[in-house]
Amino acid sequence: MSNGDALTFDIEKNSKPATASERETLLQNPGFGRIFTDHMVTIRYSQDRGWHGAKIEARKALALDPATVVLHYAQEIFEGMKAYHLPDGGAALFRPSANAQRFHNSAERLAMPPLPERLFVESVRELVKIDREWIPTAEGASLYLRPFMIGSESALGTRPATDYLFCVIASPVASYFKGGASAVTLWVSENYTRAAPGGTGAAKCGGNYAASLSALAEGQREGCDQVVFLDAVEKRWIEELGGMNIFFVFDDGSLQTPPLTGTILPGITRDSLIKLGRDMGLTVREEPYSIEQWQADAQSGRLREAFACGTAAVVTPIGKVKGRKHNFTIGDGNAGATTLRLKAALTDIQFGRAPDKNEWLDRLF
């Protein structure tokens, strides 16, 4: 049985790719996750053969039997990462090995066969190379990459699937939030929790995001952009947003973010910002922070800034927080100096405008 270490990719180029003119038109206003490149990666797994059939082929619809395991038991995991256009015309991925490791951990939590990390990184690299013309060059835009894996066996019965399909698709993207750098407003969810101890909070699986959607819809009805979740036990400790981690900036210049206790996704952007903040000489704490303390600190002025972060959101300032029991503004309601400084430090590395002292960039060409 193959563990995938020796796999190479068969390449079947799209016979009808987008024309240069069509691609240029689409890249003028890509939005987020609305348009896709010409190709995709597929790799299959079965109990008897292991990982096999690695391909780069024309992007197409998946054919799934109505009894496919993922449709009934939600065996699914995914990643989010980006390829960035560099000043010299090249391109690079940002910390792809960290995505590969997290994908491995998510697979183990969902009782799925881990894809070899080398194969994960190589699949993303090869897709970007073949669809390199789709990497946007506009300020702040990038090529978003979505590796994912599903249980593809056709069977009913609550058990792990025997067959799996791994894919990578790519989408040129601009800013995740409308308005770009504008501060967002959060809704404090009191009726819903995102994850509980012993659950799948630390895994990047679709079920976590599906569970957040009712809370997000509630927040949007209240005029908010995103939702912030509290812990499932005491319902007072801040955990994360629907798809982003969160940081707080205090009047002494220090930063704080909730600790990774198994209910919070270990964000790669989060980890990078902790490192960058400490490199700047800032104190960065990973400690619990309650919603009551957040409101009190915002009202007293002790808390000066707050921001969300993630691959899609990058670094997004938080201006206001609303809820059934909460209504407060952070600072002057706009992006703060530390937030903007950290965002610039991160994106300057990602887009090749600053030295990559931590060797986070994986140059492709």
CATH C-level label of the largest domain: Alpha Beta
Taken together, the total number of domains comes to: 2
- Class by helix and strand content? alpha+beta
Q: How far is the N terminus from the C terminus?
A: 34 Å
Radius of gyration: 21 Å
Share of β-strand residues? 25-35%
Oligomer: single chain
Low-confidence stretches: none
* Outline: globular
Average pLDDT: 96
- Please tally the helical runs, counting DSSP H or I stretches of 4 or more residues: 8
In the CATH hierarchy, what is the superfamily of the largest domain? D-amino Acid Aminotransferase, subunit A, domain 2
Tally of strands: 18
- Main sheet properties: 9 strands, mixed
Please tag this protein with its features.
nine-stranded mixed beta sheet; L-isoleucine-2-oxoglutarate transaminase activity; globular; alpha+beta; 26% helix; 8 helices; 365 residues; D-amino Acid Aminotransferase, Chain A, domain 2; D-amino Acid Aminotransferase, Chain A, domain 1
Question: How would you characterize the overall build of this protein?
Answer:
This protein is α+β, with helices and mostly antiparallel strands and 365 residues long. It folds into two domains: 10-173, D-amino Acid Aminotransferase, Chain A, domain 1 (2-Layer Sandwich), CATH 3.30.470.10; 184-350, D-amino Acid Aminotransferase, Chain A, domain 2 (Alpha-Beta Barrel), CATH 3.20.10. It is 26% helix and 28% strand. It has eight helices and 18 strands. The protein has helices at residues 20-28, 69-73, 96-109, 117-130, 206-221, 268-279, 291-300, 337-350, and strands at 10-11, 39-46, 50-58, 76-78, 81-85, 91-94, 142-151, 163-173, 184-188, 226-230, 238-241, 245-250, 255-257, 284-286, 303-310, 314-322, 327-329, 361-363. The strands form two sheets. Strands 1, 2, 3, 4, 5, 6, 7, 8 and 18 form a nine-stranded mixed sheet that branches. Strands 9, 10, 11, 12, 13, 14, 15, 16 and 17 form a nine-stranded mixed sheet that branches. Residues 10-22 have a biased composition (Basic and acidic residues). Belongs to the class-IV pyridoxal-phosphate-dependent aminotransferase family. InterPro entries: Aminotrans_IV, Aminotrans_IV_CS, Aminotransferase-like, B_amino_transII, BCAT-like_C, BCAT-like_N, BCAT_family. One of its GO terms (molecular function) is L-leucine-2-oxoglutarate transaminase activity. Acts on leucine, isoleucine and valine.
